[in-house]
Design goal:
Length: about 400
């Protein structure tokens, strides 16, 4: 497998800390200084993108990547993790926004091809479109998850920006989006037509209040994503003030970290991006420090993966069959003997195996199995069946 020269898109990061302890993350990272990292030997690659021309009410977020690194580098690696990671530096703004997008797409696409997990620090969230476009050469449909207070559908279809990128993903040709999920939307920020559109597209949307006191309920949703786009404004302002769009409500910092660990642990996740962090609004580095800990949680989760998906040996799973009177199909659940995580099998149409093979086993929770045992079809089954039928 040939290796592309990614250094043509990257510049060395600035402001890296010098007073690092010998066993800190910063001491273990292969970072772009004089020589470009040997990224093909890494499991995880950090990418900063200093692009903010698509930002809405958040100018200054281009400075985010270099503000996070000093906090991230001073953290210690997860206990026992044989960490192999690199920092490719920053993608600087091109002469036009599309040039920055092309650079990010090219870098992420090459990392995906070599099975290296990209962790992107933006910059504005429209960069998610470039991350999504990087999957096109894989020629497979993927699931996208947005942790966000809004859906980013936009009102002006022609213009790409941080609050309209999802519309561009939906309309992207060729279309390789299987599903979009949103965790943490806040209803008062959305008009009724946006909610109606998400329902018509059979996308999965989950209001912030559903997870109050129960962030563990996000785990199956996060586990189903190939790509995660995390908007810092989804975290409450008191925990993450470093964003021009932050408000009084949102996830707590520890909940954001827990979701990031779920993402890292998912065998399906192949890229994740954090966007809209703006040092100009930050207080004493609070948000930068939190974002560093969120990235740490992704890394910790990655090295705690159980490798129980996709299924390779059915004997490593418990199989449960439930007959629901109102359904035409017997519901089949699988529980991993390794991780205790659950999946629900959804039948796909004859002749569609190649297109839907990756999606007919849907991550679910034990509560979904209990719902089926109570003679009700879980919502996740209906949503997935409507997509593939």
């Amino acid at each position: 497998m040939s290796v592309a020269d990614l250094s043509i898109y990257m510049q060395s990061p600035k402001g890296l800390p010098e007073d690092l302890k010998s066993n800190s993350l910063g001491a273990l990272v292969d970072v772009y200084r004089d020589d470009f990292p040997e990224w093909q030997n890494a499991n995880i690659a950090l990418i900063g993108v200093c692009e903010e021309r698509g930002a809405i009410n958040n100018q200054g977020c281009a400075s985010g990547p270099d503000a996070v690194r000093p906090y991230l580098y001073k953290l210690f690696p997860p206990s026992g993790a044989p960490i192999k990671w690199c920092d490719l530096g920053n993608i600087q703004p091109g002469s036009e926004v599309k040039d920055t997008h092309f650079a990010l797409k090219s870098v992420v696409s090459e990392l995906l091809r070599h099975k290296v997990l990209p962790i992107i620090i933006g910059g504005s969230q429209d960069l998610t479109l470039a991350n999504f476009s990087a999957y096109e050469p894989l020629e497979q449909t993927i699931n996208v998850l947005g942790v966000d207070r809004i859906f980013d559908l936009g009102q002006d279809e022609g213009r790409l920006h941080a609050e309209s990128y999802l519309n561009h993903i939906i309309l992207h040709q060729p279309n390789f989006l299987f599903n979009y999920s949103n965790i943490g939307y806040q209803t008062y920020f959305l008009c009724e037509t946006e909610l109606e559109l998400m329902n018509k597209l059979y996308f999965d949307t989950y209001r912030l209040g559903l997870f109050k006191g129960n962030v563990a309920a996000t785990e199956p949703i996060v586990r189903n994503a190939d790509l995660v786009s995390f908007d810092i404004s989804a975290i409450r302002q008191s925990d993450a003030p470093g964003c021009g769009n932050s408000g009084p409500n949102g996830f707590y910092g520890e909940e954001a970290c827990q979701m990031c660990r779920y993402a890292g642990m998912s065998d399906k996740l192949t890229s994740i991006g954090f966007y809209e962090f703006n040092p100009a609004y930050d207080n004493n580095g609070q948000t930068a420090h939190l974002l560093a800990q969120m990235i740490w949680c992704v890394i910790a989760g990655y090295y705690a993966r159980k490798h129980d998906f996709p299924f390779k040996d059915e004997e490593k799973y418990y199989r449960y069959q439930v007959v629901v009177n109102d359904a035409d199909h017997e519901l089949v659940f699988f529980k991993s003997k390794v991780s205790d995580r659950w999946w629900l099998s959804v039948p796909y149409p004859p002749g569609s195996r190649a297109r839907y093979e990756r999606h007919h086993l849907v991550p679910c929770a034990y509560e979904d199995y209990q719902t089926a045992c109570a003679n009700e079809v879980p919502d996740i089954w209906w949503l997935t069946y409507q997509k593939i039928s």
